[in-house]
Amino acid sequence: MHYSFQGMTKQGDQALLQALGARIRRTREALGQTVTGLAERAGVSRRYVTEAEAGRANLTVLKLAAMAGALRMSLAELCDLPAASPRTERIALVGLRGAGKSTVGRLLARELETPFVELDERVERLAGLSLTAIFDIQGVETYRRLEREALEDVLAEGQRQVIATGGSIVTSPETFARLRESCRTVWLRAAPEAHLARVLSQGDHRPVEGHPRALDELREILARRESLYAQADEHLQTDESAPAAVVQALLERLGA
């Protein structure tokens, strides 16, 4: 499904511009280009690129085609966007454990005055067991099934929510696809060292107990999942940022 350009409402126009902006930014970042570099290659101003990525620019076809070429894409590829849907009323945070999903999620929900949901807490509620017990006693497949059920339960509760997901949800194709079609997804990115440090600072030393290669293993997990996390609508680096600053940056991205 793709955007229809006929009969677009003002709200639909904004959603389209924001989706185009997110596509431009993700592609630029994936190519390692700076805003200035893209502007120079496309022959447009730096401000134009910034406004386009923020979903505020009224993009002309010629300028859009120039930016597509600078991003090594055809105009058709750049404009091949998912259909607009109520998913933009739901925000789902993805990323490795220690990315700040719970902390940022609670603050974001407070700012947006929406419910905050920890998906793994819903999984535990369904199972009547802790996550550790689910994995130890019932195994990964049971966890995956419960995760899918929990997500559907959460989605049925309303259109406006902030959801913090488990770090491995991206490795379950069906569940991750459902999340992406029903929510505006945000990848909270951080270096492996930051992830591990945050978990340890919370008093949880399980990742390192009996695991002398804990950091290397975390790097390997991130490397395997990076392309999956990258499918999120928004990417935010959180290494050096306080949770409140991350929330403000995210609010700007969301146009809230």
Which keywords apply here?
5-stranded parallel beta sheet; 2 domains; 434 Repressor (Amino-terminal Domain); ATP-binding; Rossmann fold; shikimate kinase activity; ATP binding; 256 residues; 13 helices; Shikimate/glucono_kinase; alpha/beta
How would you explain this protein's 3D organization?
One of its GO terms (molecular function) is magnesium ion binding. Belongs to the shikimate kinase family. Pathway: Metabolic intermediate biosynthesis; chorismate biosynthesis; chorismate from D-erythrose 4-phosphate and phosphoenolpyruvate: step 5/7. The chain has 256 residues and is α/β, with parallel strands linked by helices. The chain has two domains: 69 residues, lambda repressor-like DNA-binding domains (434 Repressor (Amino-terminal Domain), Orthogonal Bundle), CATH 1.10.260; 169 residues, Rossmann fold (3-Layer(aba) Sandwich), CATH 3.40.50. 56% of the residues lie in helices and 9% in strands. It has 13 helices and five strands. Strands 2-3-1-4-5 form a five-stranded parallel β-sheet, with helices on both faces. The longest helix has 21 residues. The protein is globular and about 60 Å long. The protein starts with 9 loop residues before the first helix and ends with a helix. The N terminus is likely disordered.
